[in-house]
Amino acid sequence: MPGSSGYRVRSVDNLEGLVIARRLRVPIGDAPTGSHPGWGEVAARQLDAALLSVGFTCSPALLDRLGKLRGETVVDLGVRVLAAVRHLVGDHVRHNAYFIDFPRNVPDTMEFWVGLLREALLDPVAAAHVPPTTLNLLALPGYGRYQHTYADLLAAHAELIPLAGDRVTVLELGADLESEARALYFSLAGSEAPLAAEDLEALHTLAAFCADEPERVPVRENRAVINQVRLAAGRPLLVDTVTDVLRLACGASGGDVTLTAPTRFRSFRRPERRALLQALDRVAAPAKLADVPRHREQWKRLGERLHPHEYPQFPRAAQVFEVARGVRRAPSLDSRVEAALSAGRTGDAVELLERAPGALLRRLDHLLRTGTDPGGVLDAAERAAATASGRVLLSLREHLQNRLALAPGRVFVNRRGRAWTTADTRTRLEEDVVARATAVLDEEITRRLPDPGALVVDPEVLDVALPLSGKPVAPGLGMLPRGSLSRVDGELLRFFVHWRQAARRTDYDLSALMLDASYGDAEHVSWTNYGNDFAEYSGDLTEAAGGASEFIDIRLARATRPIIIPQVHIYAGEAFDEAAEAFFGYMTREAEQEGMPFEPRTVRMKSDLRGAGRVALPLAFLRGDDGAWRVKWLHLYLKGHPGFNQVEGSRVTSSLLVRSIVERDQLRVGYLAGLLRSKGSASGHTTYIGFQAPADLPEGARVYTPATLHELIPA
Fold first, then answer.
1. pTM above the 0.70 mark?
2. What is the superkingdom listed in this entry's lineage (predicted)?
3. Cα distance between residue 92 and residue 476, in whole Å
C-alpha cells in the first residue's frame, strides 16, 4: 500500500489513534467506572489541561464521561489521546531553529555570510580547508547545522502568552472503538471521491478489523483495497470489471491500486491464483475485454504469475491475457470514439458514448466544439446525466461555470499533485449552450441530494471547495480541498517545515515568494535572502539526521505584496515520500504574543509533504480589497530539478500555477447549500454543515464537517 511519511496506520492497535486523528472523537464505550470518587475527575481535568497546551480540549460530554472512569483508565487513555493529537499538530518532534533568537536578531544576509567567512579564516583548522580560489559558502564551518541545543533555544525564548484567538479544537465523546471504527470504515469505503494514499492505507486496516460490509463501494481503488482483505480471508471478491481484478492483484503485491505506476507482481499462492482467475472469468464478457489494452503490459506481467493455462475451467479469463498479448482483438470504446471524431462523425461518437454516460459527460466540451448539432449533443448529455455518477456531474458543473471566463491558461494536475500549465486554445462555447447544460446538471444534482430538513450552515464554510478528489490532499490538521478559501486570523503568519532524512543527507529549503496584484514584481525570502521589511527567515539547515525545522515569519500588516506563496524546495537528497518524515504547516499569532518558534496551540494547518515533485506549493495567502487576508489551498507539486531547486528558479511557473488556481471559480459548499435550501422540507431532522458542530444541535442531527464533507457528494 502507498504510505506517507507521517501518521501511519499499521495494526489494529492504531485504530484508536486513527479515529481520534480523523474524526476528533475519543472512543470510550462501556469502560468501567471508578471505585474512588473524585480520582477520575482529577485525572480528567489534568488531561484537559495537557490538551489545552497543544490547542485541544475535551467537550463537556467527554469530560463528564472521563470523570466517571477509573483514574488509572483516564491516565492510560490520556497518554494515547495526547500522543495522537500532538502528532496531528506536529508537536511530536522538537522544532529547533538555526538562529537561536528567531524571529529577533536575524542578521542581514550579506552580514551573515561575511561573518561565517571571517570565523572560518580566523580558525586555523577551518582555514586550512578553505580553498584559495573557488569558495563554496555552503561548506563553511558552522553553516547548515544547529549551533545550539534545543535546551538553549528554550532558555532564549519566553513562554507563549495565551490569547483568546489561539486555536482550540474540541475532542468529542465517541462510542466504543468497534462502532467508531465501523463508522469511519463505512465513510471511507462509501466515498464518492477518490481517496488519498493515507486514507487508502487506513481503509485497508479498517477493512481487516470490521466484519460488516458497506452497501456501496463506488470508487474502484477503494474496492481494490477491500478486496485485498477478502482475498486473504478467502471470501468472495467484489468485482464487476476486468480492471477490478488487475487493481486487486497490484494491491495484493504491495503495488499501486490506482495503476499509475507499474507493479512488480509477487508469486501468488495457488488458492489466490484460483480466486483471481475465477473472478476474472466471471466478469470477462466480450464487451469488458476492451478495457484490457489500456493496461496491456501490466496484464502480461500478471499472466506470468497467474498461469491461466493451468486452469482450463476459466476460458474467459484466458481471453483477457490473449487480448493483452495481441492474439485476440478487442477495440476499446475510446479508440472507436477517437476514430469517429477524427473522421468528423461527431454524431457517431455521441452514439457510441451514450453507452458510457460518464465518458460522454467528460467529453462534453469537446463534442460541443467539434459537432455541428449542439442541441443533439445536449440532448444526449441530458440523458447521460440521469445515470452518471454525482462526482462527474459536479466536476462538469465546475468546468462549465469557468468556460465563459477568460483564463490566463489551463492548469492540469495529476493524481499525485504534479501540476503544469498551458495556453488555452479552445474555441469559446456559446452562452446559451453553457446555460442549458448547467441547468440540466443543477436539476439532476438537486434531485439526488438528500432532504436536509432544517438546514444550518456556518457562513465560514461556504467558500470551502467540494472534495471532488481527495488524492492530492494528505490528511492532517485543518486540511481543506484544493481551491478552498478561508480567513486568516492574527497579525503574525509563520510557516514551518520539518523533515528527517532516512538514509542520505537531505536538504529542504523553506521559501516564500511575494507578488503584486498582477502576479509580477516578485521578491522572495529564502536561504539566499534572509528577510525584507515584513518577513524573516529562521536560517538554513542542510542536513536532518535527527530532524530539522525551518520557519518564515510574515508581519501581515506591513506586507507590501498582496500575494504570498510559501514553498518547500528539495535542494539535495531524498524526495518528500522517501524521507523518514516531512511535513509543512502554518501558525498565526497576535503581535504581542511571544513564545517558541513552534507553538502547537497557534498551529492552524499541518500535513505531510509527499508526491513526486521536487517543489511543494501547499497554499497561497491573498490580501483582498477589504484588506483582510485569506488562504487559498493549492496542494500542488512542481517537477523541479533533480537537485539545487530554489525559489528563484521556479518563480515563473509558480506564479502561473497559483494564478490559474486563484482565478478559477471552484464549486464550493455554498453551491450545494443553495441547492439543499431549494428542496428543504418541514421534516423533523436537522442538517448542519460547518467546521465544527455546535453543542446545541438537536438529537440525531446530520453533521458535515471538513472530515466528512465527501459524504455530501451525491451518488
1. yes
2. Bacteria
3. 14
Are 10 and 89 in a shared domain?
Answer: yes
Summarize pLDDT for 280-311 with one digit per residue, the tens. 999 999 989 999 999 999 999 999 999 999 99
What's the grid cell of residue 469? 478528489
Do 622 and 527 lie in a common domain? yes
> Is the CB of residue 541 less than 8 Å from the CB of residue 556?
no
What average pLDDT does range 657-684 have in this prediction? 88
Query: What is the pLDDT at residue 635?
Result: 92
Are 484 and 632 in contact, with CB atoms under 8 Å apart? yes
In this structure, are 47 and 69 located in the same domain?
yes
In this structure, is residue 480 part of a structural domain?
yes
State whether 627 and 701 are in the same domain: no
Cell numbers that stand for 70 in this block: 477509573
DSSP 137-153: GGGSTTSBS-SS-HHHH
- Is residue 269, in this structure, part of any structural domain at all? no
Task: Express each pLDDT in 232-276 by its tens digit.
Answer: 999 999 999 999 999 999 999 999 999 988 999 999 999 999 999
Say yes or no: 24 and 135 in one domain.
no
Computed over every residue of the chain, the mean pLDDT equals: 90
Domain that holds residue 521: 94-164+469-666
Number of independent structural domains in the chain: 4
- Characterize the bridge pairing of strands 702-704 and 523-525: unpaired
- Residues 115-151: b if buried by 16+ CB within 10 A, e if exposed: ebeeebeeeeeeeeeeeeeeeeeeebeebbebeeeee
Calpha distance 36→39 (Å, rounded):
6
Residues 388 and 459 placed together within one structural domain of the fold: no
